[in-house]
Amino acid sequence: MAPSLAPAAPRSWRAWLATSLGALGFLLFGYDTGVIAGALLFIRGEFALSPTLEGLVVSVLLCGAAIGGLVSGRLVERHGHRRLLMGTGILFTLGAAIAALAPSVGALVLARLVLGLAVGAASAQAMLYISETAPTEHRGAFAALAPLMCTTGILVSYLVGWCLAESGDWRMMFAVAIVPSLLLVAGMAFAPDSPRWLAHHGRIDAARAVLRGTLPEAEVEPELRRILTVTAAPAVSFTTMLREPVLRHALLLACGLALLQQVIGINTIVYYAPTIFRNLGFRPSDAILTTSFLQALAILSTIVAARIVDRAGRRPLLMAGAVAMAISLAAIGTVMSTPLAQTLAGHVAAVAAVALFKMAFSFSWGPLVWVTMPEVLPHRARGTGMGVATLTNWMANLVVSFSFPILLASGAMAVFGVFVGSCLLAFLFAAFVLPETARVSLEAIEQRSPSPAPSH
Fold it and tell me: What is the pLDDT of residue 453?
């Protein structure tokens, strides 16, 4: 029998529900970002997309995500995670329906913008919701469920694309997401709010009830006292975060993680992997199927990360992943810019390099960035800080994804060389700037000295 993903189960169905629904938000995040990879092969012909329009259709989701991530911080402070994620599910449903019925490029762009708002809110607040409801000793494993569901959502989108490749029905590729979107709306109606949000808003009995669902009875009151000590301070604005050195340092850590996750090139692989394989001579269905297989490897890597993240720590996995990704990106660039691209050996090398990249990303910078960002932010700045960090993440994603098809036309080696350099920067950031947060409670992390360099 396979081992369970988390070392220990929550103590109540409500805690499982909170974790599962937060992860479902990430499933939709993954599906709606990945579905364009297969759909684009057929949208390109139906709407006669130029490279610029192609970049717009892909990247407008990222504009919406940047806005959704930023606005979600203020909304979650006011309304809580439960209501925010219900609203996010409604946006997912609406965007998928508009995309499935889109009569023109303009309507499709609108649908992608609406989906982006939902993706941004989910990426910022679903992880925060899980982090604030999970037990301290298993927070990394539980939080890693969300990126696991994200990679699963991407895989499902690829498989749906492969199943529909022969018919070219890209509209159905989008429509499939309506079902899990409605499940998110319905499920959040029964889910608890974060105990930290409840305590911050004076709902002490409700916070205690949620804690009883995740902790042994003897630990409930001590944990509640720690939460009340931290949440007594009022929530802060972005300008306050910039003025206060401790908050500014935490914000720079979170935004650094968010920025580096994108500039290492992951979403060029997520969005354009089938296109890359098509450029190497693969048939459309073969390109999508190969991408699906590689995404399955990514899921296995995320499961490995979830099993070991609380024992191995965040920083060692981030450093190892950065090195492996640099090697794989250098190989992809070499194959695509030389005559190897037209040979069987080149095809094998390209597939192996993409596989290595996706596996390395999925046990390091994929799940662990979303795990670590809320950990390094103090409670009073967590909602705002996650919104700003998510904005940073999606804006970097936008720049990379919009420019990739244009830059790729001018030469693969230079583009992938930039990504290799970004991986080296990511290694240095994890090695010398980022503090270790594994096996430390959120309250204890907040009480640490904000030294910019970890001890060795």
Answer: 40
